[in-house]
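Dear colleagues,

For the upcoming journal club I promised to circulate an example of a predicted protein-ligand complex. I picked one with zinc ion because it came up in last month's discussion. The inputs are reproduced below in full, followed by the predicted structure.
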Amino acid sequence: MRFQLHRAHVVATPLLLGFLVLGKASAFEVVPQPAPPPPGYHLVEGDMYVPEGLEKGTVWEPNTWLGGVVPYVFVVNDATAAGSYTSTTLGFASNPPRILTSAGSDPFIDIGFRADQLVLVRGSASNDNTAATLYRIDWLTNDAIYLDPGDAVVNEGFGASVTLDVTVSVSPNYQAAMVAAMGEWEAVASVDFVPYSTEASYIRISNSVFNRATVGVVGAAGPGTVEIVNWGEKYVMCHELAHALAFKHEQSRADRDDFVTINYQNISTTDCGGSCVGNFEPSTTASIYPASPWGAVYDFDSVMHYGQYYFSIDRGNLTTIDCNPGYESWQDLIGQRTHLSFWDITTMSYAYAPGNWVFLHAQSPTPNPNGTFADPQTSFATAVQSVPSYGKLVILYPDTYAASTSGARLITTPMQIEAPTGGVILQ
Ligand SMILES: [Zn+2]
């Protein structure tokens, strides 16, 4: 299957990149302990788990979900640590239940804790807890983590070494936020996220200190994964869900050099366990990102596009991505995480289309009688005759198509015809 879904990106609030990219380990930082990817998968481009062994020229295309049905399960009641924070300046107070710093200066908010996270406390004395005790963070200040009012804590004085584990369990509020993000895609495409029961393929959604996802259906290797840290940012979650739905990064398209310029000299050489160049390199991504023969619009507005400072040696000053001449007005806008773009919506609606839509592309290298978005038909005559009455014909490629043959009209049933990029002539 050839697939040209290519939009998506790394999560990237400054905070996240702060420890995702910079990765400094200090006493006041959540030390991330990434969950292992599915067997046979590895991480590329910051947030995408893809099969290992991809070499330049290797053809690999992610699989979409059959019927658009995506079973999912939230990780709950799991004390596995996604990140840990150890300090000797912590103390506990019971009313209201909270964890304090003696100095009043521990920047809890800056080190990765979030409201609604479930944390496990491992103390040096009586307040050691087991996996059965997960505290929910109710709210935070700079010097205190207020726990759920219903949680009882065991007091422990300041000075003991206490470790707070951010767990992979997803709190009810986070679950609700994710379901809302799912709803964004469900509203614009024939996608249906359903609670997992016994399906062979599904995604496992966990709390994390990263935003990451497997790309497309994993299959026999096990469940796919969606890891989220920015539960408060709906469109960061939409980005990761789009990966799970088989979408990739827009700026990794094979034709991206026609639209953006990668400033290799500004890419960090240390923040990715070494150089981050691989996150931008065609040699890494060529096999993952197929050519774009559709004449499709390059979507600077995509929720799947990197921002201009991603993986920069000096974020805020030195750009890693510049929009080419003619497109400069997009420079400060790429990497947006505030909405789904027109083409995000359109492409998703095509990848997960209603059953009565037929796709046509005169230059499709992989024509298929089913005429799907990934494998469109090439013949107008064949395509138009396979559109059910009141269905839709989507013409993906600008061209002149013969709408009649030997004087007989080929369009004989009512249908909608759509040419998203324009330039289509029927004669
Ligand atoms: Zn991404």
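Two points we might discuss: The longest strand covers residues 81-87. The first helix runs from residue 14 to 20.

See you all on Thursday,
B. R.
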